[in-house]
Amino acid sequence: MKYFEGCTALITGASSGLGAEFARQLAPYARGLILVARRNERLEELASELRGIHPGLTVRTYCADLAREDLRTQLVAWLQKEDIAVDFLINNAGIGDHGKFQDGDWNRVRAMLDVNIAALTHLTHLLVPGLLRGGRAAILNVSSVAGFFPLPHMAVYSATKAYVTSFSEALALELRPRGITVTALCPGPVPTEFFDIATREGERDAVAHFKTFPAMVVTPQEAVAAGLRAVAARRARVVPGPLLAAAVGVALVIPFFVLRRILAWKADSI
């Protein structure tokens, strides 16, 4: 964790789940944290908690719906006005949806595209020039193992995460010679409120995701720690949890026509 000493980190989706855990794990080492999310009350609660435990830490909160392009631009303008130089960007904000594509609500699908793809890409584009000027810096994009596979009942979500992983890998190649590390964190199911929100009313209970293969589930603390270790090691991608990482590695070498049948069978069983 010495890699992160004195950093100023901006964390999106910081009001809960992995975003809040990133803040807690970085707090003992960072000089400053900028916590961004839609739910201001939760942001302020987390900020108060962190200030109480780490009096020397500067914690700022910024309430914004990152699905809106104008609010993303306003966020970066605020950073410039406050003379805040970010050297660690954590694109954690994301939206999920579980259920058949044809039954989905378009507004939710559009929000998923806006947050998971557009917001992550736009915010990165806005902040990269500053990261380059500052010298050594890092970007961590929270993706998912869902991005490795076309998952029925999570068609749009898995597609957005495929984008995040591919984008991160390409950006890592571009920016590494300039001193910027780019890492994609690809966790499997993590016990946060994510699945409770992503699972539609009437769908199978979200807890079933964790009961299927409990040995492959990692805690939020483990997922975040794995992501931070990967950044410090300048790795472009990490799947937290040795069993899950091994399973993904095996699945990726299976011929796709076989994998397609497995995914179809899985979809029929839901």
Under the CATH scheme, which architecture would be assigned?
3-Layer(aba) Sandwich
Task: Describe the sheet with the most strands.
Answer: 7 strands, parallel
- Record the strand order, biggest sheet: 3-2-1-4-5-6-7
**Tally the helices: what do you get?**
10
Q: For the terminal residues, how far apart are their CA atoms?
A: 41 Å
Shape: globular
- Weakly predicted, low-confidence segments: none
Tell me what portion of residues adopts beta-strand conformation: 5-15%
**How many separate domains?**
1
The topology string of helices and strands comes to EHEHEHEHEHEHHHEHH
CATH class: Alpha Beta
Helix content: 40-55%
Write out the CATH superfamily name.
NAD(P)-binding Rossmann-like Domain
